[in-house]
């Protein structure tokens, strides 16, 4: 008999990761570590032109090497069905749309042999002129119909132009952010195995269900004949959120040679084939009265995509709901260039968009002579300014006030460029953070076993965030049992369908399905008087109807970012001395994993502010700094004093857990807070990221 009691709630406790021992002892298995019998290795060949066509492929030298099994290119590659995302149509055409695109793949018995054969494969091209430079006045700029994921490209209320003309105080500035590339610790990797019953992919992905549903039709298979196994993932940051060309190439190569194939994306290849954050050029215009109350907000964004696929980042969408103003306009313009396709990178849209908006808010505060926190408080909206919907909860002001108290903001002298400490100019800055609350349909099963334990199954993904642990806590509370009695199985498309790990919606989406499955199981057990047969009792839940019928609220998480920096007046070298983030993100499921997510995002935001920049070589159409020796990212040593806290927030309009999601919001606003602190330290306003020494030393 299974007895359901009510132990101390697990949600809200700092439970250690349930798979922690597996990870630190090397037992956790990642995609590249799977090694089926008869395994061979695939090494892609990338285009070394930015635009044109493959004229010919000479494989004579490659195939003469010992151990080489096959060389595959458009002329002999297996045909796959047309894909809506043309990036997935690997080796199906002569066309080259960008430098680094896959044009061939070599398969050999060892990785070393495959690498050498790929080096010897000769590809000749018919080269065409290319265009890889983003500029706001590009003649190819156009208005996309939608921006990611499905927002209108432009919005307008009132008469922004007239309001700007009549405003007492106007800020009209252009801000830019460079291309930035995802660099998760684990590169993308796939082991593809064809069998009599279909295709199995051991893949590093943020969504096993999505990979299955995308790959299956390409190879003419029903989804049930494709299985994607991904129990452990070493980071993603959005780059593994949607199936990309490497997983298709691995499956294609395995089909061609009739043996299991292992393919990994090298660090350098990741700068071409796995997406990146689009560079942006943003013009922000703010009009206010002398007391800093906004009368008008205009935010225009210019960004890029590739020739073969449109991806439009939702850069100005946070501006639509952050601050009150009766007149407002936001626009997106896109140009298709001979570059790889941009894609998701942690908090797409909000991250570059809020850098520009929060920098402009700081400039407005200076122009009005008002404290930057007070300026934001004066422009708090009573409801979503664009939709008019009430906020399910909005505690931005509480975050600002609590952050100011903890950071010592009250002692701040607003005058820029006057504080010297140990020969360094010191300054502080603040910016707001926000991220929308998403929830997507998912399914889960919950099983009671005769030994008194429970198993919950859902095809969720743990990309290092602690999702497996959070779901264990959620399930335990829904079942009314200790966490030690609950086992959660994730990371396999054979499990009940789940939305991907991205958009800070994992816990909200998967957790809802888990709660509903566990609630159904407790009901079934009560009906049985707690009796569990030898084969157990299993129930399932599908949240599609619940998610589709949600109440109409504007749902967002909010936060406040505080930064203190020191700048060497002679060299321009900038150090971040302190970072503090204060967040309102609903109920925190696990404080330990939550803090990790928040400070990880904040560190990534610091990296954006000071270091990250993918530099395009206009002559060759390629990013010059395509490795971690030249593409610099921040580490823990780059900020010695970093802390993330949160305010209590009870929001009943979200999901059964009351959670808003925290994976993205930590990065949002951080770069602006650092840039605002640099201005306060030096009196130099840097509007183009990153904040390099040459932009501070004149």
TrEMBL record:
One Pfam family, short name: MoCoBD_1
Keywords: Molybdenum, Oxidoreductase
UniProt-recorded Gene Ontology molecular function terms: iron ion binding; xanthine dehydrogenase activity
This protein's record includes keyword Oxidoreductase: yes
Residue span, Aldehyde oxidase/xanthine dehydrogenase a/b hammerhead domain: 25-129
EC number(s) per entry: 1.17.1.4
Tree of life domain: Bacteria
Classification via SMART domains: Ald_Xan_dh_C
InterPro entries found in the cross-reference section: Ald_Oxase/Xan_DH_a/b (IPR000674), Ald_Oxase/Xan_DH_a/b_sf (IPR036856), Ald_Oxase/xanthine_DH-like (IPR016208), AldOxase/xan_DH_MoCoBD1 (IPR008274), AldOxase/xan_DH_MoCoBD2 (IPR046867), AldOxase/xan_DH_Mopterin-bd_sf (IPR037165)
PANTHER family given in the database record: ALDEHYDE OXIDASE 1-RELATED, XANTHINE DEHYDROGENASE
Protein name (record): Xanthine dehydrogenase YagR molybdenum-binding subunit
Species of provenance: Streptosporangium saharense
